[in-house]
Design goal:
The structure is a homodimer. Helix content of chain A is about 40%, strand content about 20%. By secondary structure, the first copy, chain A, is an alpha/beta fold. The first copy, chain A, folds into two domains: about 240 residues, Aldehyde Dehydrogenase, Chain A, domain 1; about 140 residues, Aldehyde Dehydrogenase, Chain A, domain 2, CATH 3.40.309.10. In chain A, about 55% of the residues are buried.
């Protein structure tokens, strides 16, 4: 990239740091007022956002983009009103900043408390959908963080218009314009620059497909929260209610196939295979799902496609599922440990012992007992908002709401205390 | 590095993953019994550890290592007994694993709980002191993690002997030998291999000097917890008790100069400079401290060495301190934001408003009000043990005890729940 483009990205990050210093001590009321102003401005100026969006959509059409992607890209007055309504919902959520997580008076009389503080500068790198531009900005503002938004080039005009509206709104509310910034540049180079802005950017959150996430995770010197790749499993135990198992399986797989919490592999205990697999295959067929089975599953139906080694590691995000028969719960756990992305795994069982063992042994973000994998979701968990689903173990694991956009600091109050 | 050496490091990590799966569901009693066995074994076999240590010490002497470093490297029966006693203290700490951090029953009846789980495989990269070999292993075992220990080559024989004793002890207690492993190889290549073992190692914790920490932070694809670089500040406010301020300053600087929570810069409000700076200079001189001052501080004494730009960013770890006069609390905060490593900053003030403002505006791991910077410490905070002091914002910030060696998972229990 040209050095001027590089310095433009770093300048953006430096301005974000300045804004973050202003945002950190703000009270909830000030932040909520700015969010309400932002929501109002999006609605009031939706015509100019839609006009910019039309340009993106036309360009996408000219580039031969598929209709599903076009639909995700498209903004209308109604959709903008819905996005603004989501911002108003964020106003209703508690402010995580200032929460005292723990505290004590030490034996020497020092008063110790651990207090939530904003992370500082949050970079969000995302694809396609322009609603993330608003969601990300709103959640970061509520949690006292400055945000650097790096959307896809396909939505660049839409994002530029949205960010201009949001910046005007926060300025009108008395906050720095650089509370919210779009990272300049439409090429991949600006992403690289953001990934190595260590010391200026506190955390990067990539949201999108597996390839985007891998690129960011492997190339960043800035700390990254890995999100959203889901190779989720449904394990049907030896002791199980067959109808319930079929319902959970079909819901986990086919309720919405394009999302990270949909199931991609079915594992069936061999003691229940004769009873369950034929029911499962029929129900999956009705739902339009192609089954990629091991030899044992193939034996039940000619419709089953032979699974290859790659199937066990595949996040299909389509009407496909891998399926295998396993000799025990422990073999199911071993399979999951080897192949899962660590997102969500479900057991369907009537056995309390099996449920307890599965929960103890499965090392994933969420473990479901007799419930669909589709429940791993900030909204479903009652968090009120979600910036993504972390599948890593550091900092945040699972659906990330406002508290996950904070760090902490220790405040220690003494009376002339020195160490002896 | 040779490919066989590389695969040796990765094999170590793979074996650690297997061990981690066994450790995760263990009860506190099993882990505590193993720790007690480990402590007993260290004492029982201290002769063979000391014999190995003698070789390291002789080699260090032959290489011209200074006496301070030789002292840190040296193990005796008494020192090993003290290290074993620290392990017994860890037995007394609560097990963080299994703690329910939050939970609720969702409107649809799903029971949601967030439970602490081990991180998995923790790699510790450290310098010189062989006591870290035991501390790191004990804290990781207590928190259910498998540990990969990568000490310095100068302590390789000592660490090899200690790890052999610890592995025998955990095996005798019924745990996998690979609960505790020394990373093979004495060269820097094995560190590099560890840093890129993403997917096998869950977190790396570097403990040591700034250069080691920078190398690990910048070169790792494995998530890293940055520890311990401390450019700490003492700010003496306009309203202040002079004697208290002198005591806190001298304690922060000179109580122990080689540690990360010692003060490296003094900032004085100009309204109190005439009264305070002469007292401070006299007390620092008595404590053997050289002051590197700005023009205003130089005006008070010919002993003051003129500060260069580099002084404000220097972690001396010696009997030196930088000193400047600032026109306001806001200028002190701005100086700290620009130059601090984000470890610990102290304000000395009698003004409640100034204390409140300093705490709100300073973005560091710990903020002290009328107390020495030396209090930022797991032991002082009452955490009972410390694996290091994190100066980053993700995951853990400040002294890291057992809870900071854990992640969480969500357990969701239903009754056939599917999403509609």
């Amino acid at each position: 990239m040209t050095s001027s483009a590089a310095s433009a990205v770093l300048d953006t990050a430096r301005r974000a740091r300045e804004a973050a210093a202003v945002l950190a001590p703000l009270t909830r009321r000030v932040k909520d007022d700015a969010l309400l102003a932002l929501a109002d401005a999006l609605v009031a100026r939706s015509a100019e956002i839609v006009a910019a969006n039309v340009e993106d959509v036309e360009r996408a059409r000219a580039n031969g983009t598929g209709e599903a992607m076009i639909d995700r890209l498209t903004l209308t007055d109604e959709r903008i009103a819905a996005i603004a309504s989501d911002v108003r919902d964020v106003v209703g959520l508690p402010d995580p900043v200032g929460e005292v997580l723990r505290g004590s008076t030490l034996p020497n009389g020092l008063e110790l408390r651990q207090v939530r503080v904003p992370l500082g500068v949050v970079g969000i790198i995302y694809e396609a959908r322009p609603n993330v531009t608003v969601d990300g900005a709103a959640l970061c503002l509520k949690s006292g963080n400055a945000v650097l938004l790096r959307g896809s080039s396909s939505a660049y005009r839409s994002n530029t218009a949205i960010v201009a509206v949001m910046r005007d709104a926060v300025v009108a509310a008395g906050l720095p314009a650089d509370t919210i910034q779009l990272v300049p540049g439409e090429t991949h180079d600006s992403v690289k620059e953001l990934m190595t802005a260590r010391g200026l950017v506190d955390v990067l959150i990539p949201r999108g497909g597996a390839s985007l996430i891998r690129t960011v995770v492997e190339g960043s010197t800035v700390p990254v929260i890995e999100t959203g790749v889901g190779n989720c499993h449904v394990y049907v135990d030896a002791s199980t209610d067959l109808e319930r198992a079929v319902n959970i399986l079909v819901n986990s797989k086919a309720h919405r196939v394009s999302v990270c919490n949909s199931a991609e592999t079915l594992l069936v205990h061999r003691d229940v295979a004769d009873a369950f697999v034929p029911l499962a295959l029929a129900a999956l067929k009705d739902a339009g799902v192609t089954v990629h089975g091991d030899a044992a599953v193939q034996a039940y139906s000619a419709d089953v496609v032979p699974a290859t080694d790659a199937d066990w590691d595949t996040e299909y995000l389509s009407y496909d599922i891998a399926a295998a028969v396993v000799p025990s719960l422990h073999d199911a756990v071993a399979h999951i440990r080897r192949h899962s992305s660590g997102h969500t795994e479900a057991i369907v069982t009537t056995s309390q012992a099996a449920a307890r063992e599965f929960v103890a042994l499965v090392d994933s973000t969420a473990v479901m007992v007799n419930a669909s994998t589709r429940f791993t979701d900030g909204g479903q968990f009652g968090f009120g908002a979600e910036i993504g689903i972390s599948t890593q173990k550091l900092h945040a694991r699972g659906p990330m709401g406002l508290p996950e956009l904070t760090s902490t600091k220790y405040v220690v109050v003494g009376d002339g205390h020195v160490r002896s």
